[in-house]
Fold this protein.
Amino acid sequence: MRRASFVTFLLSAFAAVSVLPPFLISRSTQREDTPQTRTSAYLGFDLNNYPGDAALSILRKTFSFGGFWLNPPPGAKENTWVGKRPVMLHQKFGFLILYNGPLIRELKSGAQATGRGAVDAVKAAAAAKKEGFPAHSVIFLDIEEGGRLPANYHAYLRAWVDGLLRANYRAGVYCSGIPLDEGQGVTIITADDIRKNLGKRDVTYFVYNDACPPAPGCVVSHHPPPPSASGIPYAAVWQFAQSPRRKEFAARCAATYNADGNCYAPGDTKHAWFLDLNSATTPDPSSPHDRKASVLLTLSREGPASRQRQG
């Protein structure tokens, strides 16, 4: 995924309040060519362009699940993932189903945002059904902008979640898990902001936080960090490394990335597919059968929309 760049994020990058993950992890980007088993977290990848059928057998040696776009990813005019679910199933991949959401500027009013959220939910559900994803699968809305979201965006999100439910699919969101300094000792995390405004709606959270720490950097491990180590205890999926490396966030773990600033699978000797790295509580985060992610959402329902900085 390719995030939008915002001045407020750049200025507050090093104001993030973070903790080190409660375990040690290798800095090496290499690992044994065997799928992980019996671990509390599962390693996955995502990238905007489909890497090709031949790549899947190589990627499967390292990753349990992969991202799958239902519409053109950010910045793309076409979706190269169309029709590729059977090939991924043949390689026994789990899925992270993704739908590219609107930018803030595209939502002009509450009414227009509500209408678009409902329409996009119908489109996403129809695309998921066409690709063969079963009912009640989780579809993650890709939200490219961070910080406190405006009221129009929350109106869109409520309509998106409700619309997917009516279409017999479950809603997820991909959003920032990075604390943003709003001044006067207050920080805001987009995931917390969304969670508060969605109320009791059942949503699965896929957060990105590539700031080191808590992120380990471009590290491929048998024991990836659990999503809760992102700083978001209710996260079901954590994107802990992005390609290319975002220098303003991942400066402290620059040595874990390739010299060109990207992450690659250990078996990708030609460096053909630069990846974002994710960990999840399940090997199939969009599965309609694995309820582990949903159980996490029942914890601490009244989470704050903002966090007071200590000190």
User: Anything to note?
Assistant: The two ends are 35 Å apart (CA to CA).
